[in-house]
Design a protein that fits this description.
- This protein is mainly beta and 162 residues long.
- The protein has one domain.
- Helix content is 2%, strand content 47%.
- The protein contains 1 helix and 8 strands; from the N terminus they run E-E-E-H-E-E-E-E-E.
- Strands 1, 2, 3, 4, 5, 6, 7 and 8 form an 8-stranded antiparallel β-sheet that branches.
- The longest helix has 4 residues.
Length: 162
């Protein structure tokens, strides 16, 4: 579930190195908890592993909520469809002889942030495995996070090599 924390992973719409592969549009500019924000929709016409984090994704889209004042992320939501997934993880390929994998995979996820820290991650997933329809829901609530020796970034240099 931590791979859904897109603020801290290079495989996301936040990585300028892969941003050109996304279609972006401004949905609205609401005020949330007294802060002016942008809600931006994103998607990939042809999803990539680098963009969606899913090796076999066939559809991928979502929304990101960003605070205008400091560009901090409040929330990232996404939906993915995939004809199949490896049982060991969505980012892994399936070997030619492997017949034990998830089929007709659909999932939605969200990551919510408070004061630049992940607060809650949610994942709802449905798939078929060995002829059975399976539905999973998971929530990871972060109760405590500690950050020591923080370095403030002076530029948008989030990802090494970008």
């Amino acid at each position: 579930m931590l791979e859904i924390d897109w603020v801290r992973t290079a495989a996301s719409v936040l990585n300028p190195g892969i941003l050109n592969g996304f279609k972006l549009s401004l949905n609205s500019e609401p005020t949330i908890d007294g802060k002016e924000c942008w809600i931006i929709s994103f998607g990939q016409k042809e999803p990539t592993l680098a963009g969606s984090g899913d090796f076999y994704a066939s559809a991928f889209n979502g929304e990101i909520t960003i605070v205008k004042e400091d560009y901090s992320v409040l929330k990232i939501e996404g939906k993915v469809k995939s004809p199949k997934n490896n049982r060991q993880g969505k980012s892994l390929a399936i070997g030619k002889t492997n017949t034990s994998f998830y089929q007709n995979v659909k999932y939605s996820f969200s990551a919510e942030y408070v004061e630049q820290r992940v607060d809650k991650i949610t994942l709802d997933k449905t798939f078929t495995f060995e002829g059975k329809s399976i539905s999973e829901s998971s929530v990871l609530k972060i109760n405590k996070a500690r950050a020591n020796n923080l370095t403030q970034l002076e530029t948008r240099d989030y990802f090494i090599g970008e």
